[in-house]
Write a structure and sequence with these properties.
Strands 8, 9, 10, 11, 12, 13, 14, 15 and 16 form a 9-stranded mixed beta sheet that branches. Strands 1, 2, 3, 4, 5, 6 and 7 form a 7-stranded antiparallel beta sheet that branches. Helix 2 crosses helix 3. The protein contains 8 helices and 16 strands. The chain has 2 domains: about 110 residues, D-amino Acid Aminotransferase, Chain A, domain 1 (2-Layer Sandwich); about 170 residues, D-amino Acid Aminotransferase, Chain A, domain 2, CATH 3.20.10.10. The longest helix has 15 residues.
Length: about 300
């Protein structure tokens, strides 16, 4: 399969308030965001022309920037409208939307003071992160890197720097023949994968780690709401690494991953069962339904 580079495509990107040709959306190489990871972003999916939980993503983007110490100079309504605009400009109804805000090139010292805030939004066609494997279950390895303590970096912000160890772990997993890797936290407890939250089915209850040291994902919260609507027992708690041997089913949740089954974590095997399959179907139904349906489920 021939890959199309992301810097050489037809289309439009929303850039600081206006649509610009895709190939022209280029920040300066001496931007603070490139050198010091002073950048925050979101990943969103559109289904049938509607971006799922758009306002929640926009508010998280703005909150992430505040955690890093800067304010995005566009209100939530304007950012929402820009996401829809760029989706339409690229002729997409189903697609992936990527807003990113970063600090510019006015100054390049460690301190970000004096740098302008930029915002760009792109959209492209992107099927499920794991492709056809999401139904039968993906194979996962074990990451060498751990999710850090929230005392060491802004783990509750969706910022680019936090993803470095996830990117490194994902690459190693793929080199070893896996689709992804399980990441533990600094206490050796189950955290998440390199880019999605994780759920374990133990004794017919849905267990998921407390989001300490990693994002409390929007899709994570959606899946928990769907499970509770089905009268499933949902338990959010610290999960020790050894407990993965007690699970009968394991699945992931994230914007790119949607709901994806897991069939292996290292030597451990799982069979995607009724709970995983039910939540897959319910999630698909929800994201392709009306916004009022979403509001009733997630509040």
């Amino acid at each position: 399969m021939t890959l199309v580079p992301f810097d050489d495509r037809d289309g439009w990107i929303w850039w600081n308030g206006a649509l610009v040709p895709w190939r022209d959306a280029t920040p300066h190489v001496l931007s603070h965001g490139l050198h010091y990871a002073s950048a925050v972003f979101e990943g969103e999916r559109a289904y049938g022309g509607t971006i799922f939980r758009l306002r929640d993503h926009t508010e998280r983007l703005r909150a992430s920037a505040r955690i890093l110490g800067f304010e995005i100079p566009w209100p939530a309504d304007r950012i929402d409208a820009a996401c829809r605009q760029v989706l339409n400009a690229n002729g997409l109804t189903d697609g992936y939307v990527r807003p990113i805000a970063w600090l510019g090139s006015e100054a390049l010292g460690i301190s970000p003071i004096g740098n302008a805030v930029h915002l760009a939004i792109a959209a492209w066609a992107w099927p499920n992160y794991y492709g056809d494997a999401r139904m039968r279950g993906i194979r996962m390895g074990q990451a060498a890197w751990k999710r850090p303590s929230p005392e060491t970096m802004p783990t509750m912000a969706k910022c680019t720097g936090v993803y470095t160890i996830g990117s490194m772990s994902k690459r190693r997993a793929e080199e070893e023949g896996y689709s992804d890797a399980l990441m533990l936290d600094w206490r050796d407890r189950v955290a998440e994968t390199t880019s999605a939250n994780i759920f374990l089915v133990i004794d017919n209850a849905v267990h998921t780690p407390v989001p300490e040291g990693f994002l409390d994902g929007i899709t994570r919260r959606t899946v928990m709401a769907l499970a509770r609507r089905r009268q499933m027992t949902v338990i959010e708690r610290p999960i020790e690494a050894a407990e993965i041997t007690s699970a009968s089913e394991v699945f992931l949740a994230g914007t790119a991953a949607e709901v994806t089954a897991v069939r292996e974590i290292g030597p451990h095997r799982y069979t995607p069962g009724q709970i995983t399959e039910t939540l897959m179907r319910d999630y698909e139904t929800l994201v392709r339904g009306a916004e009022s349906d979403v509001a009733r489920v997630v509040g």
